[in-house]
Design goal:
heterodimer, A: mainly alpha, ABC transporter involved in vitamin B12 uptake, BtuC, two-stranded antiparallel ribbon, 12 helices, 2 strands, B: alpha/beta, Rossmann fold, 6-stranded mixed beta sheet, 4-stranded antiparallel beta sheet, 33% helix, globular, binds adenosine-5'-triphosphate, binds magnesium ion
Amino acid sequence: MGEIIGSFLNLVPITLLQGAIYGFVALGVMLPFRMLSFPDLTAEGSFPLGGAVAAASIAAGLDPISATLLALAAGCVAGCATALIHLGLRLNTLLCGIIVLTMLFSVNIRIMGKPNTALFAFDDMFDVLLGGSSSDLTLQIALILGLALVAAGLLLWFLKTETGLALRAVGANQMMARAQGISIWRQTILGLGLAGGLCATGGAIMAQNQSFADVNMGFGVLLNGLAAVIVGETLIGRSTLWRQLLAPIVGAIAYYQVISFALALGLEPSDLKFLTGAFVLLMLALPGLTGRREVLRIRE
Amino acid sequence: MIDVRTLDKTFYRGTPSARHALNDVSLRLDEGDFAVVIGGNGAGKSTLLNAIAGEVMPDAGSVWIDETDVTRRPPHRRAGLISRVFQDPLAGSAGGMTIEENLALALARGRRRTLGLALTDTRRRSFRDAVAVFNLGLEERMDQKVELLSGGQRQSLALAMALVTAPRVLLLDEHCAALDPRTAATVMEATVDAVERDGLTTLMVTHNMQHAIDHGNRLVMMMDGKIIFEAAGAEKRSLTVEALIERFHLVDDKMLLV
Ligand SMILES: Nc1ncnc2c1ncn2[C@@H]1O[C@H](COP(=O)(O)OP(=O)(O)OP(=O)(O)O)[C@@H](O)[C@H]1O
Ligand SMILES: [Mg+2]
């Protein structure tokens, strides 16, 4: 037992950092699901897209900050693509996400020119922002957590602007939104674009943190993000907008601690996808079993 | 003002379940007209309002507002001209948003939405005043989510949202039908007050014959997708519930109105 606790505690700092990075993804997963009632799978493709764009451009000599911003922009485009397919062809939202994430697999390999890119030889955003102490784990955690909180703060502000209100209205009631003069197209594109940008930023930071980008780095990331959102909402609720925005970050951190504990117990990393799936299923089933409101609403 | 010209709409055209919901409907309202629309279930009343709002695209005919043809404009692009209140109290507002956020949504109707904060102190104060007229205590709950409100409170909010910008046209589709009689009376009173105060051009669908007699300066009766009777001015004022029922045998066929 002491051994398990020991190896768990050893993993806490690195898991905290991972959790903070996945906080971006969880924010990007929460936004379409909760604000637009749009179940969106694009995260699974925009996360590695962010990693690929950041890695390829750093390897090509771009400075890491611009590379990260470029990754963000690429993620926005991916999100918009899903939105446009849904709006233009009136296809099921899940199918649109699957189409885009599958196509992104090829795109990501094209971007890197190969299935993965190593960054050990290059300066990354941690070197640029933290200088000589770039390998200090505490500083890394503070930096990424700080950035994730800034992202959540900006999103909070945005969702309280006139445009942000319109976006939330589309998720709440489309007929009413139209009657208020809101364009469903514009808000859906905007929301999914933002979400794609957040997921890709997570991927860009992850690639730089592990000095490595890989086309397969997105596998399972959507479910992890969803699990993080659900954990966060269970922990701090979503009764107000700021709770709803903090929940993904808190949830991502908590979720990766649980994962790390499972690993300390001796589970194989390959078991975790099953466990995450089982956990999400359980959380989705619970409200139904106890007669509470459904956890996820789905657009028509 | 509003000019509905020979509108025609068939749902499920060419199938056995085809429904001729609007059959050559023409209606012209002048500035400040308050028209009450009555008719049995399936008469085409909601379809007429939906066609004016742009939610239903007519097969033929056109809709003009302020001498402009808006027939091909999508609903969100004519929302600046039109305010609506629906029958379902849940349909008119966003449940997960607060009372004041919903009013802020409505305030930006018809203009470009900015990246400025939707709620300023000045706006908050004017929103409080806008809902205080209902005497339902809404002004004390401005920052609460709308899903916590009762049907009557929520419908009052929907009406306040419809009136927060002065619309060119107000469309009310049985907006009191889902409310208990007392709340219905409050909401109807607030409606009539606002319509008369601002001289709003209004189209109000109701199943309540007394409301149809009491309110408005025009009466429009629909049946099977057609306008079968219209009254205005003195003729409208002289109508009684009994006279209408007798004239149209309302009780013995599908025009049963209460
Ligand atoms: N979106 C739609 N799709 C298919 N059929 C429709 C649609 N809307 C209305 N209809 C049909 O058109 C006809 C007219 O319906 P409408 O809703 O306009 O009637 P109404 O006068 O509002 O009736 P009620 O008093 O019951 O509300 C009905 O036969 C209805 O079934
Ligand atoms: Mg109707």
